C-alpha cells in the first residue's frame, strides 16, 4: 500500500531556457551598467546591487527547495507511521 511520491523531472528545453534567461538578463544588465553615462561609483553601486540580487535569488530558491523536500520527507514518514499503526490494529486479524 506504499505509494511513491512523483519525482519532478525537468525537460532539457526547460533547463536550457532557464540558463539562457539568466545569462541574457545578467549580460544585458551588466552591459547597461557599463555603458550608463554616470560616474564610476554609481556604476559600482549598481553592480553591487545586481550581484546581491542574483545571490539573494539563488539563496532563496535553494531555501524554498530544501524546505519543500523536508516537507515531503516528513509527509512520507507520517504516512509510514499511520500505515504501520493501521496494520498493527487491523480488525480482521
* Topology as a string of helices (H) and strands (E): HH
- What is the overall shape? elongated
Outline the low-pLDDT stretches.
Answer: none
| Number of beta-strand segments | 0
Question: What level of helicity do the residues show?
Answer: over 70%
Main pleated sheet:
none
Q: Gap between N and C termini, in Å?
A: 17 Å
**How much is the average pLDDT?**
86
| Category from helices, strands and their pairing | mainly alpha
- Supply Rg: 24 Å
Count of the domains:
1
- How many helices in DSSP terms? 2
Fraction of residues in β-strands: under 5%
Architecture overview:
By secondary structure, this protein is mostly helical. The protein has one domain (12-88). 77% of the residues lie in helices and 0% in strands. It contains two helices and no strands. Helix 1 runs antiparallel to helix 2. The mean pLDDT is 86.
